[in-house]
Specification:
The complex is a heterodimer of chains A (163) and B (625). Chain A is built from five helices and five strands, in the order βαβαββααβα. Chain A is α/β, with parallel strands linked by helices and 163 residues long. In chain A, α2 packs across α4 and α3 crosses α4. By secondary structure, chain B is an alpha+beta fold. In chain B, 35% of the residues lie in helices and 16% in strands. Chain B has 18 helices and 20 strands. Classes of the chains: A alpha/beta (163), B alpha+beta (625). Chains A and B meet through α2 and α3 of A and α5 and α10 of B.
Chain lengths: 163, 625
């Protein structure tokens, strides 16, 4: 079954744009059949509706994004999305944000989980940004981490979280 | 005589001029808010039942809105209200110095829901400045796309943002007696919407699980699918530029859109029936609900959807082409339409910053508009945006929103203002599906799965939170019919072989030009005012519906529409102790305006080119009473 690699984030927000910026670079790699690479930065509800068109199609999804969580800048985090949902009120709030244009990895995961469009195995590759202001390109610490991010994504897509 | 406060009168030809012998015609004296603030402070100190209730942020609205209120829980009334736009945006500064052709694409980013309306408004402003007039098919297709955008906006508000306030989960919690009545009340329009009891409607409005909530989410997909056939992507279209559109439209494009249009024929009938039943039920259950969110019907709308054969982009002729729009422009004061002329609407607008985080500006550039009518130093063509987030308290400054006024009245912007001005003025030239009567607007919605239906939106006796929501439901039907009408106009043009959607133009590289885009967003009124000097934008001002609605006090101490509506709202919620008080009546009032804050506030930073570097804390938590 196919595996989806998805970049998520805003464009042109410096280090916060790692997700969408990596999509073309990932596409240039040699991949075996069944690996699909998409920029899912078009809003969580639209993504849910996109995935609803192909129920059960993906065996595994690997999301790549930069997310501010007050960690060491440029560090890479790999984790398996546990699929735990917050309280209903928070889900509702996140849906509200989503339909009003907010793009966020957490919102995407929570909303997709709520609407049950995710496969059993969802892996997230995150990088901690440094500069989150408007502009092109990355700071040196992110630039230096990119090859490892790509390799982490590649391995997660091909071998899964436990691979 | 449409102006009562500004010293403007009109000659026999309808041209405006300042009254003679009026010294300093636009001067004014400010009124201090100290007395009111002192009185509130004393009330709070003396009475345990008077309580400060803050909503920061107000949830289920787009962007950052905080609301501060003082409520008297014994008397069940609101004694003070302050609306705060807590964040600012920088579109004016980003646009300043840019090539005017970039404006439609950059200003679109002012909103993540209705970017296309900013693109269109910007394109109109540039068309006036350059000048360039789009071909008829370009105008019809632009109308069609910008009608489709509201298919996203209106269901979103009715079923995802405001809708939950009327759901079982909220009503049962805040007003159990209303829920009991709902369980015993038949829904009169069951044949249209399919829900037998009012309580069934409320149950299906429940967030996350209710059928109406989920259908509202699904309708965002239908809207986007239709929209991208023309705009290429949503919410920031790639195809709206000065002079028309850049997309190639064919019969296939129109057919793809019609497949979605047919779904809306039924959806809008059901939406109207649901909101008619809900509003009527609340009035029946407790007539006091008529007072929730009530304020005088002082409403402004810039009109929208141009006649493809009349619009010429000029300011000189905007009164004529404006009145040929599908939504008649207009100003309503105390429920009466006082003008439908775009020039009178335009020259009456001023923006004040006494209670906003800005400095005033000097040296107004213009004393008249391009037609020679007088304009105020506080008009958008003169306005400069100078952020100054100091004096943060309820007496001085408390919002990033300015205080726009028309003839110095606090006006409300509303999508249902389009129904009101179009219905009351009764000058609509496009009557294939629409029929103004002077007191209402009849809409003939074609057959789909449900039979053909005549919907009639009647000018309400009282203007309140419920009528805003009801009006928004009817506006969805209005929008659907405007889309269908323009779909038919476009198809007819194509059949006749007129497939041109754009007029080439030259961007002026020398001299000064001036332009204004009069259009509308999902929430109503939207204008962009621009000046161009030697080929670059030298000033750009965006005035949005939520700036009108969310504004703070004006120089005379008069509240903005959110504030005024909340001050008039009785507390009907049931609560056992002050700690259990949720503020649902206040929240219903605020949300009835369909607040959208991302586009409400804009800044210009002197000396900076595009990046705002200052960090300020403008949340309401630290402000003194």
């Amino acid at each position: 079954m196919p595996v989806l690699i998805a970049g998520v984030g805003y464009h042109h927000l410096r280090d916060l744009s790692v997700g969408p910026a990596l999509v073309p670079r990932l596409r240039r790699l040699d991949w075996p059949e069944g690996i699909e690479i998409e920029d899912l930065s078009f809003g969580p509800i639209a993504v849910v509706q996109w995935l609803e068109e192909k129920p059960g199609y993906y065996e595994r999804m690997v999301f790549v994004s930069s997310v501010e969580r007050a960690r060491r800048r440029g560090s890479i985090y790999l984790y398996r999305w546990p699929g735990r949902l917050p309280e209903a009120a928070e889900i509702q709030e996140r849906i509200g944000e989503a339909v009003m244009g907010v793009i966020s990895l957490d919102n995407l995961l929570i909303i997709s989980q709520h609407f049950r469009v995710l496969p059993a195995e969802v892996i997230v590759v995150e990088v901690e940004p440094e500069d989150t202001g408007w502009g092109l390109g990355f700071t040196p610490c992110i630039e230096a981490a990119l090859e490892e991010v790509i390799e982490t994504v590649r391995r997660a897509a091909l071998d899964g979280y436990n691979g | 005589m449409c102006f009562k406060n500004l010293p403007i009168e009109f000659d026999a030809q309808g041209k405006a001029h300042l009254k003679e012998n009026v010294r300093d015609p636009y001067s004014y004296e400010t009124r201090s808010l100290d007395e009111q603030a002192d009185r509130i402070k004393e009330l709070l100190a003396r009475n345990g039942h008077i309580k400060s209730v803050d909503f920061d942020p107000v949830t289920r609205v787009a962007g950052a809105l905080a609301f501060h209120s003082i409520v008297d829980l014994k008397e069940r009334r609101v004694v003070e209200a302050n609306s705060m736009a807590t964040l600012f945006r920088g579109y004016e500064v980003i646009l300043k110095g840019r090539d005017p052709r970039d404006a439609a694409f950059i200003s679109s980013r002012a909103c993540g829901v209705c970017g296309g309306v900013h693109s269109a408004t910007s394109a109109l402003a540039m068309e006036m400045a350059f000048p360039v007039k789009p071909p008829p098919l370009g105008i019809a297709v632009r109308n069609l796309m910008l009608a489709l955008e509201f298919w996203y906006d209106n269901p979103l508000h009715l079923f995802l943002l405001a809708g939950p306030d009327y759901s079982q989960s909220i009503v049962q919690l805040t007003n159990p007696e209303i829920w009991e009545k709902a369980k015993a009340s038949d829904a009169p329009r069951v044949k249209i919407h399919g829900f037998r009891m009012i309580s069934d409607i409320m149950a299906e409005l429940n967030p996350l699980s209710g059928a109406l909530y989920l259908e509202g989410l699904e309708m965002t997909r239908v809207a986007r699918e239709a929209y991208v056939n023309i705009g290429a992507k949503y919410p920031h279209p790639e195809t709206v530029i000065p002079g028309g559109m850049t997309t190639t439209v064919t019969i296939t494009t129109f057919n793809e859109i019609f497949a979605r249009l047919r779904q809306l024929f039924d959806y809008c009938k059901r939406t109207v029936a649901i909101w008619d039943d809900l509003c009527d039920f609340f009035y029946y259950a407790n007539p006091e609900y008529k007072k929730v969110g009530a304020r005088p019907a002082n409403i402004i709308d810039s009109g929208i959807w141009d006649d493809p054969f009349a619009y010429d982009a000029s300011y000189e002729n905007c009164n004529e082409w404006g009145e040929r729009r599908w939504a008649t422009p207009g100003v309503i004061v105390d429920g009466q339409v006082v003008t439908t002329k775009l020039q009178a609407l335009n020259i009456g607008v001023e923006e004040f910053v006494e209670h906003s985080y800005y400095e005033t500006w000097d040296s107004p550039r213009y004393t008249t508009d391009p037609a020679g009518n007088p304009i105020s130093p506080y008009h958008m063509w003169n306005k400069q945006t100078k952020p100054h987030p100091t004096g943060q308290n309820w007496r001085e400054k408390y919002s990033w929103s300015t205080s726009p006024r028309w003839d110095r009245h606090a006006m409300e912007a509303e999508c249902s203002a389009r129904l009101w001005t179009t219905g009351a003025a009764n000058i609509l030239p496009h009557r294939r599906f629409l029929e103004p009567t002077g007191a209402s607007l009849k809409m003939h919605v074609p057959e789909s799965t449900l039979p053909e239906m005549e919907l009639e939106w009647k000018i309400p006796e009282i203007w309140n939170a419920f009528e805003r929501n009801r009006g928004r439901a009817y506006h969805l039907a209005f929008t659907t019919l405007v889309a269908f009408d323009n779909w038919l106009v476009g198809m007819d043009l194509l059949k006749q072989g007129y497939d041109q959607v754009h007029t080439p133009f030259e961007t002026p590289r020398k001299g000064s030009q001036i332009g204004a885009g009069f259009w509308g967003a999902g929430r109503g009124y939207l204008t962009h005012h621009a000046t161009i000097d030697n080929g670059a934008l030298s000033n750009y001002q965006i005035l949005t519906p939520s700036t009108w609605n969310a504004c703070p006090r004006d120089p005379w101490g008069n509240p903005g529409p959110y504030e005024e509506a909340v001050l008039n709202t009785p507390i009907l919620e049931e609560f056992s102790s002050p700690e259990n008080y949720k503020g649902i009546d206040i929240l219903r009032t605020i949300r009835s305006f369909d607040p959208c804050m991302p586009c409400t506030t804009h800044i210009h930073v002197d000396g900076a080119d595009h990046v705002i570097l200052r960090e300020v804390n403008t949340c309401g938590c630290g402000l003194d009473e």
